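Entry for the shared binder. Reason: the reviewer on the internal report wants the predicted structure included alongside the sequence.
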Amino acid sequence: MSFVSGVALLDPGSLEDVYWAGRTTLAHGRKEIPIYDACFTMFFMGGSAPDQQSQPVTRSPAVEADTVFEVPSGELPEEGGDEEEARLGSAAAAVIVRRSKDFSECSEEELAAIRKMIAALRVTPPKRRSRRHRSSPAGRRLDLRRMARETMRNHGEPGDLARLLRSERARRLVLILDVSGSMADYSRNLLQFAHSIKRGAGPVEVFCFGTHLTRITNALRYRDPDEALRRAGEEVVDWAGGTQIGGSLDEFVRRFARRGIGRGAIIVICSDGLDRGDPALLDSALERLARLSYRIVWMNPMVRDQEEYVAGSLGMSVAMPYVDLLWSGHNLDSLSEFAEALPGIR
């Protein structure tokens, strides 16, 4: 519990923060540090399992990782310092180096490590006010029924004022992911991100589209991310193919949004906007979707600066008037920032 509390105060998406939180709370004494390093490497960085019989507790095993790590400035010990601390800094700095790197520029080893970090993200669901009320001293509405009951219990003597406050519920979140060929460098990481959101962000629906729409919500219910992504890949038959954004969104509105999935929901469309379909169909679908949904968020990996972005494709030009929030999603930093910003979307 101390380890979990420590990670909650830091950044759960940072391997460095997770390491130090665990070492501070779980390793009780210098003799347990080698065991902790070996277990941490095995669980978080894909290393081999520690051999307790062949490695004595006093021996410090070398920490090996699947990728090359860099030591940030200020982390290296002075000459003559603890050699173990130097190895530790080398193992923990990988996340800092890769978090701002574009997914399209990452190697396979880096992408594998990034997916592990995305899988560790926990997203707080956005909230909406419900019709129900709950007792709260900060409420503006008087709880007359409760006050009447208290007065009757006190034989007619009035008690303190009781107040009611509107309660909150998790708002539905719908992710619509573009898995066409132009999004090949980003689609798998965005799908991994959708799986992380699905595990901890309340009512979540996930769809994929290329030339047509596919609902993969049930496939992402599996806790193991590899199994979930494998089943999602089996259901999506137009992976890395063409792009029909307008037709796919029109299908979503007709089949799902009108029946309740999209009503009052936050719609997150992850696409580069390179549409080969009819722009009029895209405009019509977004217009109807804007009326049904609460907010439309467009996550475009080609966007680097949301404030100075100018639509460079016909699809994005058509979509921009209906988009409430534009995001990038091209690297780990952008996805982490979106996870932090999601609960504040009002």
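Summary line for the report: The first helix runs from residue 2 to 9.
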